[in-house]
Amino acid sequence: GQDELADRKYLYSFDCMNWFLLPSITDSMIQQVAANARGPFRGEPSFVYPARTRHGDEDKGAGLVATEEMRLAVTVQQIDEEVSVVPRGAFIKTGDLVQLNRSFGGLSKAEGKSLDNYMHFREPKSIKKEGVQKRGDWCPSFDFLDVLSN
């Protein structure tokens, strides 16, 4: 895709030769997986976890089925959202588009030692512009993600 942040795709393979695209997750998919998937992964994407229902439970996910592939997609994308980190300046935002910054040459040794120079590579949840703007080199094209040190 055009947008490096919004258009990310995830793949899985059984043999490192043939690759399959994981579906993008939705809120209903997260509910289905949370309500039904239990135990270790089985290694079969088409495996259907039986619907779990509990008497008197008003859980929206109850009664819905989930597949192993759905569970894998939810797991991978949630882990990626929590742990993907990029150095400040590696990506640039122009308008609504996030792209690789082709002029980024890396962080200096001193910059690389500071968590303030690393950002979560996900949609921002809590940008604290005050702290970033105090740096003196704040740039809205670079500083559009949550800083790791916050």
From TrEMBL:
It is found in: Cell projection, Kinocilium; Cytoplasm, Cytoskeleton, Flagellum axoneme. The keyword Cytoplasm applies. Keywords: Cell projection, Cilium, Cilium biogenesis/degradation, Cytoplasm, Cytoskeleton, Flagellum. GO terms for biological process: axoneme assembly; cilium movement involved in cell motility; motile cilium assembly. GO terms for cellular component: axoneme; kinocilium. InterPro entries: RSP9 (IPR055316). Belongs to the flagellar radial spoke RSP9 family. This is Radial spoke head protein 9 homolog. It comes from Nothobranchius kadleci. The gene is RSPH9.
